[in-house]
Amino acid sequence: MHIEDIPLDPEFIEIFKKDGIEYLYPPQAEAIPEIFKGKNLVVAIPTASGKTLIAYTAILRAFKMGLKSAYIVPLRALAMEKYEELKRFESLGLRVALAIGDYDSPPAALRNFDVIIATSEKMDSLLRHSIDFAYDLGVVVLDEIHLLGDESRGPTLEMVITKIRDVNDSVQIIALSATVGNSEEIANWLNATHIYSEFRPVPLKLGVYCDDTLKFINGDKESIKGDSMGIGNLVISRIKSGGQVMVFVSTRRSAESLAEKLSRRVSKHLTSEESEKLETIAESLMDEEYTVFGEKLAKLIRKGVCFHHAGLSNSQRATVENAFKKRLLKVIVATPTLAAGINLPSRTVIVRDLTRYDGYGSSYISVMEVKQMLGRAGRPKYDRWGEGILYAKNSSRAKEFEEVYLKGDVENVKSQLSNESALRTHLLALIASDITNSEDGIISLFEKTFYGYQMPVSLLKNKIERILIFLEENEFIKRKRLLMPTPLGKRVSDLYLDPYSAIIFRKAYDMRFEPFMVLHTICCTPDMKTLYARRSEIEELVILANLHRLALDEFEIDNDVFFSALKTAALILDWANEIPQDTLIEKYGVGPGDIHSRVELADWLLYAFSEIGKVLKYPYYRQVEQFRMRVKYGVKEELLPLVSLKGVGRVRARRLYDSGYRTIEDLQSASVSDLRHIPGIGEKLARAILKQVRGEK
Q1: By C-alpha distance, which of 151, 651, 74 is closest to 415?
Q2: Which residue of 128, 200, 503, 510 sits 20 to 30 Å from the alpha carbon of 306, by its own alpha carbon?
Q3: Distance CA 464, CA 468 (A)
């Protein structure tokens, strides 16, 4: 099937052709006619086999019919990627919006757009504010549908799908996944056409490396002498042949250590031109704000290698990924987070570690997760084949890995909706959003979920009843003839808060405002992702706890939660007190990404704390709002006016202040020459600052 056979306007087809697409892959040719029949689809095909074109075709068809679309993804980074790709169609009238943050914003501002790209949590938030939003949708694309089986993301994704389908039975669902064992079962649930194929535009060779031998399952063998790193010679052999390599390991420490070891050898295989370009990238990374962590990244980048994990900041992550896409970085050593949907292929993918710590001990990772990693191998347009390689330390493990991971079946996806934390959150949302106001209505809706498709909903009835009692006893709902939200319950749901978090907040509302007390309280909630408190840190954390009045003690909540909350609260308070990022990284054993993600969560939870405080008459909510701004920007109070200027972060704001520019009025009388002599403020930024403070355009 030729690309021009798709019944879309020629100008849309031209954009696809600019990507080098002339002919459709077999699964695309099978799927696209079904789209134009208005059918729902579940598309289960390998990575790089054309799922995105199928999704975009459905969106463009809906646009020409005057219908809106939603593209739902699991990760913000993936949302950004799809946003940039779809923006190419804006010149043809398609209006694209990105919705990934602020869970307290109604969807009214999004009604003027044709495509909304959102995480499942943001889409759920939009539906809580106004279920009518679902009526406007003609197409909903569900990327990574296998995440229905994920304990944390699965329940929200499942409820989003169910709520949209409940109010809009004409919506077209396009569900996508590269690895799902029971894709046909999901298709039956969604009343969808099942498109399954093992076609790959770049053939994938799968093998296991063990005892100096790389053995592929097709029978091919290659002798590669082992070394002290285990896979060092294997990596170098692939670089010598002109390929790039992605190595997956289980921990951040392993990723950084292996990248450092490999860099000593990889740098010898860079051309002078590549070295010059990598030097420029490394320098640009350091220009943002000098940190020891950034210097470590820059040092590795210069040698053509880097690590990738959740400790990187957003800008650092983007820099590493872009350098790899441009084929300048030869090796990325990553934790499995990189495999979760980001479009970053490599000729060779090596999974070195097949176990990870699960909170109790070391356990094997799932076949699905390994297939996701190996599926990154092989770059269309660049490679004639891809290689997915597992590393085994002995022959018995090698045989086991081959049978389980390379030849074995991917696990079936099972609904995670019976999780009590998810149930209490989503039950309150159903009632507070006026989607249903009866117990029969709740049961009826749950029968439409994937859980209801897989299991008898009667198994959930006792759990639902128990949670309704919990919600009533804690004054989130009233149970009379109908189920009705209280003002507290409505606000908790709109804020996208776990009801249990609001219960924890209440323990602090009888106390005077004190920054550390409030921070510790929000860090004790299930909505905060706390830092792990090591045993060696407990004694110091006990001393810290004794220095402050706290709303909760270790006898009221789980002991581990209490101490992890102390450590996280201390980090956030240090951030708000302008402690340098390098010091925080060293003191708390974190990366820039860890700091920024906790600060972002704290910003949201402090907002929620003050908003719930208004409902419950907390007299100090204004102090919380003011302190929230300090946390958001990482500054003391006197810098808040300066840090609100675009391009002026916490470091530059302090330098301006220390140079005598303490207010916006002080800056209005400054000159470009005055400002550009302040470290970190060049002429371009100086002009931009003066334009802002003088109200110039």
Answers
A1: 151
A2: 200
A3: 6
Length of the chain: 697
Eight-class DSSP state of 402:
I
Residues 183 and 296 in one domain: no
The tokens describing 623, both together, are 């102090």
Q: Are 71 and 118 in contact (CB under 8 A)?
A: yes
In terms of domains, do 654 and 582 share one? no
The reply to whether 550 and 686 lie within a common domain is: no
At residue 389, the 3 state secondary structure works out as strand
With 0-12 CB in 10 A as exposed, 13-18 as middle and 19+ as buried, what is 483?
A: buried
Give the C-alpha separation, 355 to 20, whole Å.
39
Q: How many CB atoms lie within 10 A of CB 203?
A: 13
* First CA to last CA distance, the chain: 51
d(CA 401, CA 614): 56
Residue 103: per-residue pLDDT:
67
pLDDT tens figures, 435-454: 999 999 999 999 999 999 99
What's the domain range around 122?
A: 3-196
| Average per-residue pLDDT for the chain | 92
DSSP designation for 181:
T
Q: Which two tokens stand for residue 643?
A: 């840090």
Q: Per-residue DSSP letters for 306-360? A: EEE-TTS-HHHHHHHHHHHHTT---EEEE-GGGGSS----BSEEEE---EEE-SS
- Answer yes or no: do 107 and 157 share one domain: yes
* Number of neighbours of residue 201 by Cβ within 10 angstroms: 14
Average confidence (pLDDT) over 322-344: 84
Predicted local confidence at residue 362, as pLDDT: 80
The number of helices, as runs of H, and strands, as runs of E, in the chain is: 31, 19
573 HSE (CA, 13 A, CB side): 18
Residues 512 and 570 placed together within one structural domain of the fold: yes
> Cα separation of 691 and 697, whole Å?
7
- The answer for residues whose C-beta is within 8 angstroms of residue 148's C-beta and 6 or more apart is 154, 157, 158, 186, 413, 415, 416, 450
Same domain, 372 and 287: yes
